[in-house]
Amino acid sequence: MSKLKFTAMPSKDKRIDAYIAKAKPFAQPILKHLRELIHKASPQIEENIKWGMPSFEYKGNVCGFASFKEHVGFGFWKASLMKDAEKFLKDNSGMGHLGKVKSLSDLPTDKKFISYIKEAVDLNEKGVKLPKEKTAAKPPPEAPDYMIKALNKNKKALANFAAFSPSHKREYIEWVTEAKTEATREKRLATAIEWMSEGKSRHWKYQRK
User: Class for domain 14-125, per CATH?
Assistant: First the structure.
């Protein structure tokens, strides 16, 4: 006897039904068509609502769409890693990666769109992650005059302070300047100069040896 093959039924979310029903008349056929193609490309995709918009997920975010007053926006979560990344990012002016979609004719062909979805799903299947955005190091605040004068009186402290990373400089400057009384400030400054002359960071006591 031959075994019957069962195709996974797409997981539908009633909240997306309601979202589409509330969309502008021009947008409804677009949203319905996109939804249908997404599930046709990958029946394992599940639906959700994130940030107030329909989201489609498989082992993480895959894509999503949104309806606006005069257009529909569609976006891939990992567009920057896809084959047509340059085109997607260029078309991002319409709050999505397909430009401002105002009618079904503005969409890629069904075959092309389905290939995009399959590619996006495959990235999640393989566990490919988006690269973390590099953030520039926050520059340290300027040391007050009284701190600079104290450093100039101790060559070792001055040299070590100048070699510190921006974060280590910031720790010392903020520790001294945030003192609530003058007496506390002077005490902290003296300690800071002593520790810096020894090449120690502000939190040297807590560093693993």
Answer: alpha beta
